[in-house]
Amino acid sequence: MTAPAIELKGISKAFGPVQANKDISISVQPGTIHGIIGENGAGKSTLMSILYGFYKADKGEIWIKGTKTEIPDSQAAISAGIGMVFQHFKLVENFTVLENIVLGAEDSGLLMPSLSRARKELKELEEEYELYVDPDKRIDEIGVGLQQRVEILKALYRKADILILDEPTGVLTPPEADQLFRILDRLRSEGKTIILITHKLREIMEYTDTVSVMRRGEMNATVKTSESSPEQLAELMVGRKVLLRVDKVPARPGKPVLEIENLSVVDSAGVERVKGIDLTVRAGEILGLAGVAGNGQSELLEVLGGMRVGTGTIRVNGAPLPLSGSGSDARSRRHAGIAHVPEDRQREGLIMDFHAWENIGFGYHREEIYRKGVLLNNAALRADTEAKMAKFDVRPPNPWLAAKSFSGGNQQKLVVAREIERNPDLLLIGQPTRGVDIGAIEFIHQQIVALRDQGKAILLVSVELEEILSLSDRVAVMFDGKIMGERPADQTDEKELGLMMAGVAGEAA
Amino acid sequence: MDFLTLIQVLDSTMRMATPLLLACLAGLFSERAGIFDIGLEGKMLMAAFFSAAVAAATGNVWLGLLSGVASSLVLSGLHGLASITFRGNQLISGVALNFLASGLTVLIAESWFRQGGRTPSLLTDGRFNGIELPFAIGPADAAAADRPLNELIKEAGPIQQLYSELISGHSILVYVALLFVPLTWWVLFRTRFGLRLRAVGENPAAVDTAGVSVQGLRFAAVGICGLLCGIAGAYLATGLQAGFVREMTSGRGYIALAALIFAKWRPWHALGACLLFGLLQAIALRFQSIQFGGFTIPVQVMDALPYILTVVILAGFVGKAIPPRAGGQPYVKER
Amino acid sequence: MEKMPKWADVVLIPVISLLLAALISAIVILLIGESPIEALDLMVEGALGSTNGWGYTLYYATNFLFTGLAVAVAAHAGLFNIGGEGQAMLGGLGLAIVCLYIPFPHWSIALLVAGLGAGLFGAAWAAIPAYLQAKRGSHIVITTIMFNFIAAAVLNYMLVNTLKPKGSMEPATGRFPESAQLPSLHDILAPIGIEFSKSSPANVTLFVGIAACVVVWGLIWHTPLGHEIRALGKSERGAVYAGISPVRTVMITMLISGALCGLMATNNVMGEAERLVLNATEGAGFIGIAVALMGRNHPFGVFLAAILFGFLYQGGAELALWTNIPSELIVVIQALVILFTGALDNMVRMPIEKIFLALRKENA
């Protein structure tokens, strides 16, 4: 039997009081695709960062191709033949593809010889692995799919034979993802070893040879993929049986609450992000907006929430709302009965350094109930926070803690509590469960459905198709700033939506 | 204004532009690597003092230059320590270093020379003197003809005036500063170091994951910045003037910073911007008040003009300046 | 999870930073060939040993209260106002115009109106960089620095060409009328039987400064505007999400900050000099940076830090008088305080955090 390509023995790593990795051991055979699956925060990325020399393990050994190897920095990882494709690409945006590939792997002090050699070698690599990309294009001129190819080429140019990919499909359309897996397949057949980190069961089941499951910093199991089932892996991942479907009664849609007509958004760089869309959300229904990240959903949510300007018409309960100028800010939107759980709770929904009680008033701080003349009624805010914390089971229930001291799930509960308890007519909610633990996901989903059942309109934006399908009553798909189609949630599936997300138009809805 | 006056103003422009240019290129290296530096002023001031002090004590201007550069490098090291090693606020660090230089120079000057915070005036050997290029009319010709130099120049033809006044007769540091423009361009865009330097100012994570030390690159950039600020300061005290006086940089570090923004962090454009600001200073120096269509522009307006212009540039009325993307932010590895 | 108790962050770290700055200053004094112990003795005696010393210390402290608060208010909005010097200069100009051209029946009304003029001018001087930052994204640090230089030119022009009394060579205004002169601490304390030095410049504006501390404290932590200022300072995206206009908030914050700097003129121009001279601010705008950093941007911290720097300035002046140590030593100390409490904060903080973490593990 050949030596494993990678063998980790008893790896432990703590960040302050947080134990990110606990005594982890795995072994990966050469020429295979090995999946590592786990929830957000399970410690997958930390483990791979240790393997790539980003962090030093507190304890444990790394063996590469049968020899014990110290990996104090990325340089050591590269010389050991390890290449890494990060979730957020590590590319210099205003450099060309070629410059990015050469960066850090130049032959000599002068640039020109390195670049021309790299150009030649790149051509060979492209042909060998069918990884075509124009070397003279700047990174900010090419799409994410191609950017990912550049990352893979970077690794191959450095003669990597072990390739780690961290959540590689998060930003890809389903067809782009399929293409990526064809490339990975090809790399495997050339004898490369691939480690695939993901939280998507489907990818694991379809493409990996073996799989390890991580939970709360520990390695729970390593199994042959062919000998396991999605249910078994899911249970290992979360530690108990999960409900994949949300229990809910059929919706009884009422009058339209939100009407969008010919809405367009141009961003600060002058790019048109939303291209004249029409949408209607009715009272008592959840409209799920699916799409790969970066296709205009975020901008749509922001313009509705008063965080951006746009053109076109939006009406709430029949009354038109301005899309630019005075009265188009987030405060006016709140007055119009719109509540907004933003996509990024750490940068938008919460002020991380504020106490929980300050965050409960955030956005509503000028409301009468939190005022005492010209002053803020801090005591009222604290009392209100305690009540909301109790109702939404926020832990620890201490209004004086800073938002950053709560876990992701509890942070999200603070935001959801603040917005839902305003009893809005329309709730905008973006990525409601990103980085949230399973328990909190269930709770938040129930709250959203409960709000619907009170006859409120809900616009849900999520990049998780599973979440869209299980929560929504109707699903619309956004691609390249346009609505590709709408479907009742019970009359569609991941495959159809996936095609629409890739820009293949569905039949007119 | 006659031709000779124009030439003389341009000549003065060159002299005034030199410290600006050196400081501007210094800032360019630092900011291209992602380290903001509003401490150019302090580094120049420190170098001005130490170069003048050592030149005064030893009578050797080269030793002066060396000490000036060394003192500027010490401040650079502190800035690096604060903003690279300890990931502190780069602006605050710059402010602190400016005050440190402002206080220390006078403190040490008082302790060493007791002349009210200045160094003794430098004699010929303690200064960088003008280099006379071949065929130019210079002091030697004046001595040979036993006539004042300005008379000889006045009598010469326009080409000779241009050559002798504007091109010839500057100290070596002026030519060095000019040489640094193509050199900077070449280093940035034609060498491995330059590629990495620019990358670290745009996306340090890309450099880090490629196995290159972000800290090392940034320290190198900050070091070059210190070197160039050192030369700039030394030129101020031993080339442009003959000795150190308190606060002698008088905001040049900030004007250089403005020029850098105006130039959008590009070497050749930096040369243009610094020449423009140099011209303003030269005009203010030569004409105390300017008549402008029956309207007198007071001297205070001329004094304030570089700063006003900088604000106008910063306001983006003359093109939008986009700084290096990672500028001002300490690099922290992503989890 | 907090890494260490709040008191360590608020008290321990500034104190350690201060000690480091003091240590290095002591070394500098040694290198000059003087004794740091004697120097400290002299400073304490000169600044705190008599009501005259206290009078100067409190006078300087009053200046720093205003500029320190100004920097702190701006810092809460994430803005670094280095323009305090220029704003204070313009404040002086506004105050001088009010005092010279409007007759007042009583000093209290004079203080009120002159303070208004000073605040308005200071705010106006901050308004342009604020507008450029808010609307055009011009870096406020650079623009406020530029505005310091421009302010000096404006003041120079006004004093030389407009405000200088006829026949005078000095670029300064004439003396303000009697009714615009403020009562000194001596005048205030005498009726209640406290003997305070007659010649020291501390005056009634000390109480204005203390009142400003209280007002700023209330503004920042007990009003919706303060909530908005702090939210903007932490996250601009968050502010936009909450319906807080960054443009409006930046403008208001900087107007408050500029007005506070302008108000300093009630102390140094109206209370002490009783006329406007060229270099009236004496760098107090910059000292505000050190005071705000040292005081952790909290009005009470600013109050303590202002007293400390008042002590340093008065003590430094005494040193320059009696020893060979020039008063620029204080600039060095100020630089070191900014360096340690601002830029090198992590150098001091990280080891202390480690100690607290180790202690906690031991207890656990």
UniProtKB/TrEMBL annotation, chain A:
It is an enzyme of class 3 (hydrolase). Residues 6-241, 258-505 form the ABC transporter domain. Pfam families: ABC_tran. The keyword Repeat applies. GO terms for cellular component: plasma membrane. PROSITE patterns: ABC_TRANSPORTER_1 (PS00211), ABC_TRANSPORTER_2 (PS50893). It comes from the Bacteria. It is a peripheral membrane protein. GO terms for molecular function: ATP binding; ATP hydrolysis activity. SMART domains: AAA. Belongs to the ABC transporter superfamily. This is Galactose/methyl galactoside import ATP-binding protein MglA. It comes from Tritonibacter horizontis.
TrEMBL record, chain B:
Keywords: Cell membrane, Membrane, Transmembrane, Transmembrane helix. One of its GO terms (cellular component) is plasma membrane. The keyword Zinc-finger does not apply. It is a multi-pass membrane protein. The chain crosses the membrane at residues 49-79, 91-113, 172-189, 219-238, 270-292, 304-323. InterPro entries: ABC_transp_permease. The keyword Transmembrane helix applies. It is found in: Cell membrane. GO terms for molecular function: transmembrane transporter activity. This is L-arabinose transporter permease protein. It comes from Tritonibacter horizontis.
TrEMBL record, chain C:
InterPro entries: ABC_transp_permease (IPR001851). One of its GO terms (molecular function) is transmembrane transporter activity. The lineage of its organism: Bacteria, Pseudomonadati, Pseudomonadota, Alphaproteobacteria, Rhodobacterales. GO terms for cellular component: plasma membrane. This is Branched-chain amino acid transport system / permease component. It comes from the Bacteria. It comes from Tritonibacter horizontis. Signal peptide: none annotated. Pfam families: BPD_transp_2 (PF02653). It is found in: Cell membrane. Keywords: Cell membrane, Membrane, Transmembrane, Transmembrane helix. The chain crosses the membrane at residues 12-33, 53-75, 87-104, 110-128, 140-160, 202-220, 240-265, 277-295, 302-323, 329-348. It is a multi-pass membrane protein. Its main location: membrane.
